[in-house]
Amino acid sequence: MNWTIIRTDVAHPDAVAIMREYMDEVASRYYGRPITEAELTHYVAEEPGTDLVPPAGAFFVGRRDGEVAGCAGTRVVEPGISELTKVFIKPAHRGTGGGPALVAAAEEAARGFGSALMRLDTRHDLVEARALYAKIGYDEVEPFNDGQFAEHWFAKALS
User: Fold this and answer.
1) Closest to 119 measured CA to CA, from 159, 75, 82
2) Which residues contact 66 (CB under 8 A, 6 or more apart)?
3) Residue 85 contacts residue 75 (beta carbons within 8 Å)
4) How far is 50 from 48, CA to CA, in rounded Å?
């Protein structure tokens, strides 16, 4: 089964749908229960991803055998530094190579924005994400922000 990674406008229906799935999963895991539709709508409105567009951002949708199965985004946070965000693979597609492929696309976009460093933060309970980042060369670093949900910080040189 093959992955295809496509840079996609965040307003495209496929992008909107996969970002909703991402937010549903991470919020439900955080609260330890399925979130309501009202909560999901609220969280998506808080983190719409509208900054993941050119000239300083990009969003990618991953398809596995034609089915939307994951996403990742990046945005420049300061000159030379981009942030990796919204990395998500649907549970049925995890472990099939989509995560590394999506992150590689985001890293390439960040290089195109002139970034020499990619960084991200994540939560303790997102163990699959932390394992992915370690596997593909991200090192855990000292905190660089005080985000509400930031519990682990990672960075990788984009050489």
Assistant:
1) 82
2) 4
3) yes
4) 5
Token pair, residue 116, equals 């020499």
Residue type, 5: I
d(CA 153, CA 146): 10
For residue 37, give Cα distances in angstroms to 45, 101, 156: 12, 30, 36
Q: Give the closest residue to 71 by CA, choosing from 157, 13, 153.
A: 13
This prediction's pTM:
0.94
* Tens-place pLDDT, residues 120-159: 999 999 999 999 999 999 999 999 999 888 999 999 999 8
Total H helices, total E strands in the chain? 4, 7
Residue with tokens 């939560």: 123
